[in-house]
Amino acid sequence: MPMGEVLPGPGALAVLQRNFGVWRKLLVPSMLGNFGDPLLYLLALGYGLGHFVGRMDGMPYITFIASGIVASSVMNTASFEGLYSAFTRMSAQRTYAAMLATPLRVSDILAGEVLWCAVKGLISAVAIIIVASFFGAIQGPWVLLALPVILLAGLSFGGLALVMTALARSYDFFMYYFTLAVTPMFLFCGVFYPLHSLPPLAQQVAQVLPLTHAVALLRPLLTGHLPHEVLYHAGVLLLYTLVAYGFAWRLLSRRLLR
Fold it and tell me: What is the protein's major site of localization (predicted)?
């Protein structure tokens, strides 16, 4: 693939700005969901289930699960934006076709969309961090260091979602991705319990999945500790981002330029 076509230009920021401008019109209902959902999770699981679980990995269960919910929220928000919202712009609204009638290239559109997925993931995660802080579930001096990790995780999940969008012919196609990828990661990547409680084979599978590495970085940072093997976990998320971007660019180029 020609590198000049794959690498985005300044137009990616224009796409990001355009998406932000549209989202700003729906700011209130969007933020209500960002604050409301984590509140329900923390009350139902952190306090309800936490009453029976007690402590996990040396911390109250509400603290344990709050950091996991932050990571899973990045996955869910970036995935939803890269799937349903991006598909609407591409297929239903024909926004991508209109963009290609300008000097923007496919790489600009794709990079702008991936960046927007990461920003949406960051907005959702920060909302959860604020809510969890009121419960005392987020603490320590390293919380700000979690923000670049959240952005990196959002880039990886957004890139993967856009690969699916480039392949999709209808909204129904996304149920395969949620059922076969998003839901298993949500359940088996350390959000609700430590990975070492899984069978050895399941632990090995979980180590391949990006949410495992997002949780491994975010949980220590959000509970007052520095994570181990930072370069390894960040490297896996970066690899997912780059590989997904490459596949998405090729697939979108074939679809939009045919």
Answer: membrane
CA gap 68, 85 in Å, rounded: 25
Question: Residue 104 — φ and ψ, nearest 5°?
Answer: -65, 145
Q: Please give the structure tokens belonging to residue 256.
A: 């939009």
The C-alpha atoms of residue 82 and residue 56 are separated, in whole angstroms, by: 33
Going residue by residue through the chain (258 aa), what tens digit of pLDDT does each one get?
566 578 888 999 999 999 999 998 887 777 777 777 777 878 788 777 777 888 888 888 989 999 999 999 999 999 999 999 999 999 999 999 999 999 999 999 999 999 999 999 999 999 899 888 888 888 888 999 999 999 999 999 999 999 999 999 999 999 999 999 999 999 999 999 999 999 999 999 999 999 999 999 999 999 989 999 999 999 999 999 999 999 999 999 999 887
Strand partners, 223: 139
Beta-bridged to residue 56, according to DSSP, are 59
Q: Are residues 112 and 14 in contact, defined by beta-carbon separation less than 8 angstroms?
A: yes
Q: Tell me the pTM.
A: 0.93
Q: What is the largest CA-CA distance in the chain?
A: 59
The rounded distance, in Å, linking the Cα atoms of 250 and 258 is 12
User: Residue 180, CB half-sphere, CA atoms under 13 Å: how many?
Assistant: 7
Q: Which residues contact 55 (CB under 8 A, 6 or more apart)?
A: 61
Separation of alpha carbons 14 and 197, rounded Å: 46
Retrieve residue 109's tokens. Answer: 């559109």
